[in-house]
């Protein structure tokens, strides 16, 4: 079990090195991982992305999406370079495995709703006490407050 997790983390490291070289990822780059096929979730993540970029003082954004991410508006009003890359879900999970073993950057947000196993985001949303924008801004982007912006429930 442990060896399998380490092998997956090593594979994630290789993918991260390829992506970081291809897109010139450095300390001025924010990376957003959108693995879900929920278009409303992904749209809300894009809508509040400028606030995350501002908090991280980033000059570039790399968005890694799952192939099944669906279609949504990618107009976040960002004043920096934005690169998007669609990858298989297995690659996104390998990146997360690597991040769970070694926190290789502070400028990355994985917006999984129900993975890894202890992630309760989907359950929290289903209860209806927390809105998408609150979960994204406070839980994933670690902003100090939910900015006034688009209403994505």
Question: What do you see in this structure?
Answer:
The protein has 153 residues and is of the alpha/beta class. The mean pLDDT is 91. The longest helix has 21 residues, at 2-22. It is globular, with a radius of gyration of 15 Å. The relative contact order is 0.20. The chain has one domain. Helix 1 crosses helix 4. The chain contains six helices and four strands.
Secondary structure elements and pairings:
Layout: H1 2-22, E1 29-34, H2 39-47, H3 49-56, E2 60-66, E3 81-87, H4 89-101, E4 108-110, H5 121-127, H6 132-140
Parallel strand pairs: 1-2, 1-4, 2-3
Keywords:
single chain; about 150 residues; alpha/beta; four-stranded parallel β-sheet; 6 helices
How many beta-strand runs?
4
Query: H/E series, N to C?
Result: HEHHEEHEHH
Tally of distinct domains: 1
Bin the helical content.
40-55%
Number of helices: 6
Low-confidence stretches: none
Distance between the termini: 39 Å
Average predicted confidence as pLDDT: 91
Strand order of the largest sheet: 3-2-1-4
Instruction: Briefly note the structural class of the backbone.
Output: alpha/beta
Largest sheet: 4 strands, parallel
Using only C-alpha atoms, the radius of gyration works out to 15 Å
Task: Tell me the fraction of residues in β-strands, as a range.
Answer: 15-25%
How would you describe the shape?
A: globular
């Amino acid at each position: 079990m442990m060896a399998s997790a380490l092998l997956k983390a090593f594979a994630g490291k290789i993918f991260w090195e390829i992506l970081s070289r291809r897109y010139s990822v450095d300390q001025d780059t924010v990376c957003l991982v959108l693995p879900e096929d929920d278009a409303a979730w992904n749209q809300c993540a894009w809508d509040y992305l400028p606030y995350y970029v501002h908090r991280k003082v980033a000059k570039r954004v790399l968005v890694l999406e799952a192939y099944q991410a669906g279609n949504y508006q990618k107009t976040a009003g960002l004043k920096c370079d934005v690169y998007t890359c669609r990858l298989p879900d297995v690659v996104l999970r390998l990146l997360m495995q690597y991040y769970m073993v070694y926190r290789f950057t502070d400028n990355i947000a994985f917006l999984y709703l129900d993975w890894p196993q202890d992630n309760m985001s989907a359950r929290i949303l289903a209860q209806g006490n927390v809105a998408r924008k609150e979960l994204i801004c406070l839980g994933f982007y670690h902003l100090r407050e939910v900015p006034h912006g688009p209403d994505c429930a």
